[in-house]
Automatic annotation (TrEMBL):
Transmembrane segment boundaries: 386-412
Record Pfam families: Metallophos
Protein name stated in the entry: Calcineurin-like phosphoesterase domain-containing protein
Entry GO CC: extracellular space
Keywords for the protein's UniProt record, in alphabetical order: Glycoprotein, Hydrolase, Membrane, Signal, Transmembrane, Transmembrane helix
Span of the signal peptide: 1-23
Classification via InterPro entries: ASMase/PPN1_MPP (IPR041805), Calcineurin-like_PHP (IPR004843), Metallo-depent_PP-like (IPR029052)
Domain of life from the UniProt record: Eukaryota
Any one GO molecular-function label of the UniProt entry: phosphoric diester hydrolase activity
Species, as recorded: Penaeus vannamei
């Protein structure tokens, strides 16, 4: 049993379905790898400019559907997309928690889930431009802001054409991304929404427009290689290998199926196979894959036909608390941010922050002003790399999970724990972003 437990401890156990919190393998967790850089991921903001604190939650809290006896939270409602106060609070939390990251990865989906009406390009570019300006203002000029296209960042949603500058160039001009991307990245972006960014550390970030492969995209399904992205991606992966540079793949939608609704494939089947085969071919050079889209803390394991691990994909939960109903388990989504730690070869760890909307609701006066918050709890010391909170995925996994959890608890008890408590009358936006992702019933 001890030998089995050791093998289990060394397995790659990543944050996953039903609210698992991320962990690294024991080997990576306990092996120092030098100074790790840090970068933020913010994803699926879904800012809704029609959000109203008196709007009907059954109709996305929109201001045209007023409910006189109901008060939504100033920072959001679990049944609705993000108000501007939540967007601002998210950015303020990032700059207060870690103001000088190596870079900021912004993985798409910025407009709301609404069809009354569906956001057109005037709304999309106004939204993208505003968030771009806020991000650029929040962080110093020398910190790269790396944007990614989400499936909702087009009109109609999901439709990304096999076209060049006439379509994608608009995000640089009308969306403001020319202000955050260097010229060489802009030239690639015009071809299809993808680009390369080489960090001062030598790590290469390849931003991929996976919306071209999205199953609901009606504009690219007949192309063998939409926008030439597969050829470009292989060229860049080979170039990174020649430079002995590790690669971070960044995109919005991941390949594979959605865990919570396992009948939903994200990619067109042909593109799914081509994409996975290409990344597996170059798996040794890939440090990690970073995605959003699911609004769910999850992961993907990429393995060869023989079962050899090639790379790992991390899926971060969203800023927006909105989630379609019904959700298995009835859980809601708390707005989330993720801070990764890495060196030049591996992702070492990540810390997930969330805004608990339930207590925030109680801190709001009738005029909507924040009152007080003492709810920023840090249950780790910031150096712990083994934090496992497991939720059983089924009776058939109960024994395996129980043994693994018991082994992990031995390690956890060796870690220094601290509780960060802040007192006094301070803005909710400053102190209410705490560790861990937790689900709550919609209110």
């Amino acid at each position: 049993m001890a030998e089995w437990a050791e093998r289990a401890m060394r397995a790659v156990l990543w944050a996953g379905m039903a609210g698992m919190v991320a962990s690294l393998s024991l080997e990576r967790a306990l092996t120092p790898k030098g100074n790790g850089g840090k970068f933020w991921q913010i994803t699926d903001i879904h800012w809704d400019q029609q959000y109203s604190e008196s709007g009907d939650p059954a109709k996305m809290c929109h201001d045209e559907y007023q409910v006189s006896d109901y008060h939504n939270g100033a920072y959001g409602n679990y049944l609705c997309d993000s108000p501007w106060k939540l967007v601002k609070s998210s950015l303020q939390a990032m700059t207060r928690i870690h103001p000088l990251p190596e870079f900021v990865l912004w993985t798409g989906d910025n407009v709301p889930h609404t069809n009354d009406p569906e956001p057109d390009f005037s709304v999309i570019f106004r939204t993208v431009s505003n968030i771009t300006n806020e991000l650029r203002t929040a962080f110093p000029e020398n910190i790269p802001i790396l944007p990614v296209l989400g499936n909702h960042d087009a009109f109609p949603k999901d439709d990304f054409p096999v076209a060049g500058e006439s379509f994608y160039g608009q995000y640089l001009t009308r969306g403001g991304w020319a202000a955050v991307l260097p010229q060489d990245a802009q030239e690639d972006f015009k071809k299809g929404g993808y680009y390369e960014y080489i960090l001062p550390s030598g790590v290469t970030v390849l931003v991929v427009n996976t919306n071209l492969y999205y199953a609901n995209n009606q504009l690219g399904t007949k192309a063998i290689d939409p926008c030439g992205q597969f050829a470009w991606l292989e060229e860049k992966l080979e170039g990174a290998q020649d430079r002995s540079s590790k690669v971070i793949i960044a995109a919005h939608a991941p390949p594979g199926y959605f865990e919570r609704f396992a009948v939903i494939p994200f990619f067109n089947a042909t593109y799914n196979s081509d994409y996975i085969n290409l990344l597996n071919k170059h798996g040794k050079v890939i440090m990690a894959q970073i995605y959003g889209h699911e609004h769910t803390d999850s992961f993907r394991i990429f393995a060869s036909d023989s079962g050899e691990l090639q790379s790992v994909a991390f899926l971060a939960p969203s800023v927006t608390p909105w989630y379609p109903k019904p959700v298995p388990g009835g859980t809601a989504i708390n707005p989330s941010l993720r801070l990764y730690t890495h060196d030049t070869s591996d992702i070492l760890d990540y810390t997930q922050y969330h805004l608990n909307l339930e207590p925030v609701q109680s801190f709001i006066l009738e005029d909507g002003s924040p009152v007080s918050a003492d709810n920023f709890d840090d249950n780790s010391d910031g150096t712990s790399h083994l934090v496992i909170i497991m939720v059983a995925l089924g009776m058939t996994l109960m024994v395996v999970l129980a043994v693994t959890l018991a082994a992990m608890l031995v390690i956890i008890t060796l870690q220094r724990k601290s509780v960060l408590r802040r007192e006094g009358s301070v803005p909710v936006s400053e102190l209410s972003w705490g560790l861990r992702q937790q689900g709550y019933k919609p209110f």
